[in-house]
C-alpha cells in the first residue's frame, strides 16, 4: 500500500510536490548561505582588525631589571614574531632656536627605540622629512618648535640639566593614542589625548640621556616591551578576542609583579566583536524576511491541496483505514518534500558558496552550524506544512464538519486586540527615540576606537514591517468586503460588462485574494528593502572612503616639500579627470593647535565630492559660495564652535605661521559657517578657509595636499602619481580603493556585494513564485467554478475576465504595497544606522536596473500563470469537470 501511495504521489501530484520541495530548498539555501556570509564577514573583520593594530601588546615593566625575565615569559606564553624594548621618559619641555627666535614647548615625552623597531612595527610611524633613523621629531612638535632636519633641540630633563640633540627627521605618529596609552590605569584616570610634544631617540642615545634621570626620578622613566604575537587566531571575532585575552592572562600569571600587559589587540577585537554582533543582527534582519517568505510560500503551496487531502482521507476512512495508516501515508509526502528540499537546498548552498564565497568557509564551525540548522529547519517546515494539517484534519474533521456554518467568519485574535496598530505605534516611538543613537564610535582607554551599540535600533523597522503587513491585511479585507463598486470601476477596463460580477466574485474570495496580495507584497518589500539598503550601504562606504582619503587619489606632503610644486606634471598624467590643490596648515585657536584647510571654494568640488551633510544647514553649494564671496571667511568645526561659544559673524583672531620668519602671527578671520566633515580632515577640531587668503597672510601659497579625480582605475593613477612626486621628501600618494580596504574593520568595511547579489537573486525568485505560483495554485483551486461557468455557456473572453482580473489585483496590489513597505523599511534602517556612515547618506540610492528586473520577473510569472489557466478553456467543460 505504501509503495502504491508513493507511486501515486509522484505520478499525480508532481506540480505541488515540486513546489513544496522548492519552497523548502529556498528556505534551507537562504538560511545556510546567510549564515556562511555572517561567518565570512566575521573572519574578514577579524583579519582586518589584526592587520590594523600597530602593536598587539605593550607590556610595561615594573623595573628595567625585569626585562630578561619578562622576555622569557613572553616566549613561553605565546609564539611571537616581533618584540622590541622601548624607553619612555617624561620631560619638562623642549627648546629650539630657529630663524633667530627661541621656541619653547610644554611637557612632553621622549622615546628610545632600536634601529629595528620601525621595520617590526611599521604602523607606528610615517616618514615625512629627512632620515628615517636617528633623532626623530613628531610632526606637531616640529611645527611648534619650527625645526627641520639639522636643527638642534634642547631637552629639559626632570631633575637634571638640559641635554641637546640634532634632529635627523620628522615623522607622523598615526597611532599615538595607543602608543602612549596609560597601562594599568582605570578608565577615566588616563590622559584624554596623547602628548603634543614627542621626540624619538636611538636606544643607546636615550639610555645615555635618561639613564641618569631614571636614577634621580625613577617615576619619570619607564620601560615597555612592544610585542606582535603569532596571528594564528580563530576566525570568529569573539573567539579570537577570548583567545588573545587568555594568552595575556597566561603571561600576566607568569610575570606577576614584574609587569602589566596592555592588550591592544584584545581591545580591538572586542570592538570588532561588537561590530560583528551588530552586523549579524543586520544581516539576519535583511535576510530573514526572505526565509520567512519562503516558509509562507511553502505553507501556501501545501495548503492549496487541503481540499484534495480532505477528500482522500474521507475515502480512506470509509474503507477502514486507521489513523496510524493515514498519518503514515501522509508522512510519505512529508518525507519526500523534506528530503528533496534539504538535499536540493544544500546543493544550492554549495553552488552559492562557490559562486560568492570561494574558499573554505564551508568547513568552518560557524558555517557548518548554520548549514545543519537550516537543514533541520527544512525538515521541520515539511512536517509543519504537510503532516500537521493532515493530523489535525483527522482528529477534528467530524467536529468541524458538524459545526460548519455559512456566513462571516470570526475575526482573528490580532484583529480584535489591534496588534497591528500597537506595533506601528511602538515602531514610531522607537524610531523617534533611537534614530540617532543606534551605532556610535567612541575611544577606549587603550586608545583604540570601539563602538557603542544600541540593539533596540532594530525594534523600529521590525515592528514597522510586522505592523504594516497586519494593518494592510485588515485594510484589504475590509476594503474588498465593502468596496465592491470601487473595485468594479477599477476592473472595468479588463472585465468590461462583467466588472460587477467579477468584483463580487473577488469579494467573496477575499481571504484568498488578500493572502495572495500580502505574499506578493512581502516578496516585493523584501526585494526593494534589501536592494535599496544594500545599494545605499555600498555607495556610502565609497563616500566614507573618499572623505577619509580626500579624493580618488590624494598626494600629501609638507610645506617644505609641497606636492603643489608638481601640480602641472600631476595634471598632465593620463587618467586625471580633475585636480585641485588644498592647503593643510596648523593654526592656533586660542592655545589649541588645530588643522586648517585652504581651498578654492569655486573649484574644490571638481576633484572631490562635497556633500551637503558636511555643513550645518545641509547646503554645500550655498556655504561654499558664501566662503568664496568673503576672502577672510572661515568655516569652523562644531566642536570648536561649542568650545569657544562662537556666533556667526564673529571676528576670530587666529595664529598662523609665516613662512618668512617661522613665527606664528595673528591673522583675522570672520566666522561664516559651521562644518561637520571635510575631505582628509579629522573628526573633531578643524577649520576651512580660502586658500588665497591663507597664502597672502602666511607668505606662501604652497599646498600640502593635491586632490585628483580619476577617469578610470584610481590605483593606476596613484601609481603614476608616485613617480612624479618620488623626489619630494615625505610625499605620500594614496588611492580610494586602498583606503576603503583599510580604513576600518567595522560595519562599513564589510563588503556586502556578494550578500547583495545573493539576497537579490533570492528576492527575484521569491517574487516570481509569489506572483505566479500562488496565483496559479489559487486559480487551480477554482477550476471547478470556471468549468461550471463554461458549461453554462460562458465564452472564453468572459472566463478570461475572471482570471485576468484576479491576476492584476494580486500583482498590482501586492507590488504597490510591497514598494511602499520596502522603501519604508530601507529608510528606517539607514536612519537608525546613521552613526555607521561618515557622513550619513543624504538620500537613498535606488537600484533602478534591479527594480526593472524585479518587475519583469513578477509580470512574466503572473502572465505565465494566467496564460496557463486560459489554456484550460480550450478543453471541453464536461471533460474538465470529470478531471476534478
Automatic annotation (TrEMBL):
How does the entry describe its membrane topology?
A: Multi-pass membrane protein
* InterPro entries the UniProt entry points to: ABC3_permease_C, Lipoprotein-release_system, MacB_PCD
**Classification via Pfam families:** FtsX, MacB_PCD
Q: Which residues cross the membrane?
A: 281-302, 323-347, 367-388, 417-435, 455-476, 512-533, 760-780, 801-826, 846-867
What broad taxonomic lineage does this protein's source fall under?
Answer: Bacteria, Bacillati, Bacillota, Clostridia, Eubacteriales
All residue ranges annotated as the ABC3 transporter permease C-terminal domain in the record: 291-393, 761-875
**What keywords is this UniProt entry annotated with?**
Cell membrane, Membrane, Transmembrane, Transmembrane helix
In terms of superkingdom, the source organism counts as Bacteria
Q: What is this protein called?
A: FtsX-like permease family protein
Amino acid at each position: 500500500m505504501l509503495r502504491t501511495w508513493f507511486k501515486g504521489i509522484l505520478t499525480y501530484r508532481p506540480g505541488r510536490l515540486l513546489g513544496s520541495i522548492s519552497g523548502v530548498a529556498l528556505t534551507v539555501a537562504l538560511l545556510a548561505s546567510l549564515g556562511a556570509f555572517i561567518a565570512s564577514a566575521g573572519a574578514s573583520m577579524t583579519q582586518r582588525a589584526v592587520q590594523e593594530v600597530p602593536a598587539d601588546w605593550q607590556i610595561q615593566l615594573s623595573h628595567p631589571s625585569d626585562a630578561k625575565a619578562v622576555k622569557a615569559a613572553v616566549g613561553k606564553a605565546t609564539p611571537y614574531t616581533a618584540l622590541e624594548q622601548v624607553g619612555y621618559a617624561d620631560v619638562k619641555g623642549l627648546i629650539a632656536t630657529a630663524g633667530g627666535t627661541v621656541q619653547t614647548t610644554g611637557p612632553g615625552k621622549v622615546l628610545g627605540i632600536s634601529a629595528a623597531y620601525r621595520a617590526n612595527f611599521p604602523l607606528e610611524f610615517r616618514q615625512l622629512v629627512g632620515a628615517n633613523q636617528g633623532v626623530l621629531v613628531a610632526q606637531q612638535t616640529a611645527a611648534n618648535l619650527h625645526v627641520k632636519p639639522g636643527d638642534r633641540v634642547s631637552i629639559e630633563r626632570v631633575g637634571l640639566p638640559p641635554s641637546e640633540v640634532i634632529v635627523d627627521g620628522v615623522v607622523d605618529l598615526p597611532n599615538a593614542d595607543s602608543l602612549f596609552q596609560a597601562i594599568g590605569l582605570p578608565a577615566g584616570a588616563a590622559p584624554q589625548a596623547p602628548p603634543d610634544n614627542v621626540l624619538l631617540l636611538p636606544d643607546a642615545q636615550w639610555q645615555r640621556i635618561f639613564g641618569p634621570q631614571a636614577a634621580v626620578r625613577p617615576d619619570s622613566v619607564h620601560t615597555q616591551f612592544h610585542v606582535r604575537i603569532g596571528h594564528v587566531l580563530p576566525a570568529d571575532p569573539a573567539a579570537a578576542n577570548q583567545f588573545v585575552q587568555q594568552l595575556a592572562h597566561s603571561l600576566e600569571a607568569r610575570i606577576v609583579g614584574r609587569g602589566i600587559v596592555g592588550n591592544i589587540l584584545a581591545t580591538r577585537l572586542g570592538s570588532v566583536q561588537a561590530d560583528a554582533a551588530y552586523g549579524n543582527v543586520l544581516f539576519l534582519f535583511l535576510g530573514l524576511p526572505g526565509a520567512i517568505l519562503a516558509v509562507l510560500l511553502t505553507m501556501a503551496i501545501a495548503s492549496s491541496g487541503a481540499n484534495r487531502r480532505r477528500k482522500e482521507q474521507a475515502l480512506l476512512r470509509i474503507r477502514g483505514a486507521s489513523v496510524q495508516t493515514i498519518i503514515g501515508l501522509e508522512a510519505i509526502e512529508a518525507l519526500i518534500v523534506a528530503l528533496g528540499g534539504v538535499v536540493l537546498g544544500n546543493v544550492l548552498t554549495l553552488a552559492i558558496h562557490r559562486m560568492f564565497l570561494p574558499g573554505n568557509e564551508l568547513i568552518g564551525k560557524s558555517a557548518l552550524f548554520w548549514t545543519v540548522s537550516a537543514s533541520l529547519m527544512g525538515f521541520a517546515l515539511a512536517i509543519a506544512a504537510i503532516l500537521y494539517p493532515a493530523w489535525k484534519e483527522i482528529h477534528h474533521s467530524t467536529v468541524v464538519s458538524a459545526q460548519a456554518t455559512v456566513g462571516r467568519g470570526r475575526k482573528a485574535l490580532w484583529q480584535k486586540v489591534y496588534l497591528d496598530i500597537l506595533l506601528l505605534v511602538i515602531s514610531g516611538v522607537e524610531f523617534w527615540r533611537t534614530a540617532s543613537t543606534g551605532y556610535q564610535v567612541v575611544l577606549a582607554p587603550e586608545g583604540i576606537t570601539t563602538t557603542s551599540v544600541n540593539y533596540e535600533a532594530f525594534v523600529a523597522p521590525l515592528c514597522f514591517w510586522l505592523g504594516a503587513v497586519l494593518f494592510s491585511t485588515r485594510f484589504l479585507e475590509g476594503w474588498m468586503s465593502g468596496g465592491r463598486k470601487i473595485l468594479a470601476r477599477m476592473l472595468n477596463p479588463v472585465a468590461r460588462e462583467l466588472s460587477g460580477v467579477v468584483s463580487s466574485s473577488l469579494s467573496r474570495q477575499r481571504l484568498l485574494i488578500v493572502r495572495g496580495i500580502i505574499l506578493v507584497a512581502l516578496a516585493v518589500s523584501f526585494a526593494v528593502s534589501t536592494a535599496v539598503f544594500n545599494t545605499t550601504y555600498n555607495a556610502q562606504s565609497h563616500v566614507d572612503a573618499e572623505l577619509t582619503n580626500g579624493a580618488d587619489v590624494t598626494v600629501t606632503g609638507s610645506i617644505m616639500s609641497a606636492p603643489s610644486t608638481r601640480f602641472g606634471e600631476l595634471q598632465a598624467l593620463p587618467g586625471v579627470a580633475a585636480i585641485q590643490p588644498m592647503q593643510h596648515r596648523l593654526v592656533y585657536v586660542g592655545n589649541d593647535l588645530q588643522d586648517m584647510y585652504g581651498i578654492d571654494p569655486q573649484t574644490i568640488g571638481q576633484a572631490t565630492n562635497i556633500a551637503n551633510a558636511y555643513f550645518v544647514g545641509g547646503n554645500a553649494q550655498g556655504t561654499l559660495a558664501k566662503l568664496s564671496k568673503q576672502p577672510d571667511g572661515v568655516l569652523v568645526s562644531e566642536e570648536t564652535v561649542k568650545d569657544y561659544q562662537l556666533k556667526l559673524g564673529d571676528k576670530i583672531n587666529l595664529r598662523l605661521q609665516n613662512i618668512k620668519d617661522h613665527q606664528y602671527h595673528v591673522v583675522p578671520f570672520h566666522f561664516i559657517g559651521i562644518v561637520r566633515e571635510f575631505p582628509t580632515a579629522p573628526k573633531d577640531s578643524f577649520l576651512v578657509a580660502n586658500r588665497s587668503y591663507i597664502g597672502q597672510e602666511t607668505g606662501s601659497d604652497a599646498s600640502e595636499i593635491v586632490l585628483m579625480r580619476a577617469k578610470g582605475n584610481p590605483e593606476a593613477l596613484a601609481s603614476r602619481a608616485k613617480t612624479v612626486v618620488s623626489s619630494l621628501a615625505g610625499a605620500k600618494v594614496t588611492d580610494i580603493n586602498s583606503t576603503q580596504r583599510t580604513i576600518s574593520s567595522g560595519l562599513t568595511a564589510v563588503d556586502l556585494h556578494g550578500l547583495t547579489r545573493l539576497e537579490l537573486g533570492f528576492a527575484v525568485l521569491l517574487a516570481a513564485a509569489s506572483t505566479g505560483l500562488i496565483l496559479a495554485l489559487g486559480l487551480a483551486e477554482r477550476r471547478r467554478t470556471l468549468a461550471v461557468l463554461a458549461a453554462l455557456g460562458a465564452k472564453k473572453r468572459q472566463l478570461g475576465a475572471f482570471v485576468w482580473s484576479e491576476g492584476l489585483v494580486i500583482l498590482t496590489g501586492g507590488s504597490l504595497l510591497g514598494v511602499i513597505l520596502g522603501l519604508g523599511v530601507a529608510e528606517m534602517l539607514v536612519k537608525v544606522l546613521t552613526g555607521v556612515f561618515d557622513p550619513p547618506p543624504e538620500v537613498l540610492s535606488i537600484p533602478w536596473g534591479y527594480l526593472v528586473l524585479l518587475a519583469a520577473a513578477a509580470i512574466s510569472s503572473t502572465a505565465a500563470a494566467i496564460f496557463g489557466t486560459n489554456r484550460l478553456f480550450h478543453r471541453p467543460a464536461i471533460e474538465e469537470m470529470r478531471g476534478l
